[in-house]
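Q: For a teaching session next week I want to show students how multiple molecules come together into a single three-dimensional assembly. I've collected the sequence lines for a complex. Could you give me the predicted structure tokens for the whole thing so I can convert them for display?
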Amino acid sequence: MSGAPRTKRPRTVLEGPAATPAPETAAPAEATPLLLDFLPREAEGETRLGRFFARLREGKLSTTRCPRDGALAWPPRLVCPKCHQGELDWVDLPETGHLYAFSAVLGGAPLGMEAEVPFAVGLVDLDGLALRLFGRVVGRPWTELRVGDSVALEVYRTGDDRVFYRFRAPGPPAA
Amino acid sequence: MTGRAVAVVGGACTDFGVRPLTWPELAQEVGEALFRAVPSLRSEEVDSLFVGAAMPERFAFQSHVAPLAAEQMGLRPTRLLQRNELACASGQSAIRSAYAAIASGLSDIAVAVGVEKMNLPSMAEANSSMACVMDRPWDGPSGATAPPFFAMVAQRHMLEYGTTPEQLAVVSEKNHRFANANPHAQFYRKTFSREKLLGLPMVAPPLRLGDCSSMTDGAAAVVLASEEHLRRFAGPVAWVRGTSQYSDFHNLANAGSLTEWTGLKHTAREALARAGIGLDALDFAEVHDCFTISELIEYESLGLCPPGGGGRWAAEGNAELGGRLPTNTRGGLLGCGHPLGATGIAQAVEVYEQFASKVPSSRQVPDPGWALVHNLSGSANVHSVMVYQRGEAG
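A: Of course. Below is the structure for the complete assembly, covering every listed component.
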């Protein structure tokens, strides 16, 4: 399973300030076995959440809300966990938030992410609603991050043309 | 507790560490150790086997491990045979299933064994496997594994309560010191002063290497029997008097407070209520110190000290021998290593051996009558607790 070296392919940021080069989430190479591939199954025929990934391709992070009880879910769902019915609405999520907590992976990264070490991760309170999302935090080294910092949601395209989301901290203010 | 009374009548561990052997070989080793530790046990009377194994598919490329473990250990279960997977709590899950089977009358004598082979030639591959404990398709792509998650827990605890790296080092030093009295421990005969621990490299800030339990190969097994079948196992036993479990989220978005583990509060309260005792009755505890910060929050969520008081509880020596509640005398996950499926069972072995006065004197709790065992799993989203009472067979 250690196999051949993984090939790096160019990646494209779809949205958000792209000025600062930053570590990116692993892009599975073509040869990555399914069971070593961290990204979700996005393709038609592999998931019933195609609407989520289609919207993500447009640069928008969305999720489901139950029209009956108003419950906002994360991750997006097929069936409401409160009232167990499957007619859910889609809503776009706010594109800004604040760091509730963060850390950094300085070693012990999973396969395919070793080259990105060190990388920061965090829990982000999205502005304006009660949702706290986990994700990569790029744009600034982890040593320059503080709890409470503003971050912006960013959608990025992976090497094999899938999409995922992360957070970008604006560059540090001039000293 | 309802149903038939159930007791642990003996148990054994293999050496924990980076072991030059395979998953099935670990199962053989622990079988040998178990039959040596419980000489009156006959393989044909073990009617059921529960196998705690978190990820043999990932670490050993092997499913259907229950019959594999049975064959390796020389057992032929005729009533109940199953594998229990609950990540870091797989071992306790196996014991709870064995308890339930015996209490219900389906089984009379059962073995709960935990086996985990975690050290692979590629650490990156092993780390990928560990990421599967989290919500892999949603949190995994961002690099969610246990160290950064528990690091965020520690960061919030420091921010909210002023907990310090020095207080974390108190827990790590204590557990590594106890591990020096445990020849099976991964860090047996390795000394870690607080100063040394505070100088180890950062893994996921603010957590350093000494704040994190290790990738460990190891196995442990216990025998459980119904009250009616105790007579032939002479000597001390550990009665299962209370047990409970609580699960409240999986994706990290749904974690709520990182520093208040309400699931542990609920499950500890219920397990103690089922045992009919309060915290004050406990003589020692085995809690899930996968990270130093975990043990501090466990003191708090068990109700030993107020929220935020965990650092002070440790620094005041309350978890030491002779303290208010000696905790992790086995050496904990920090000192023994953390072979996921084996950990919960190794903790039960510690309870049994403490009750039987079979541990080295430097970690022996004087005349213990009651013990609590806690495991968390994943991102502390599941809490499992068992309460044991010392008794005598026959």
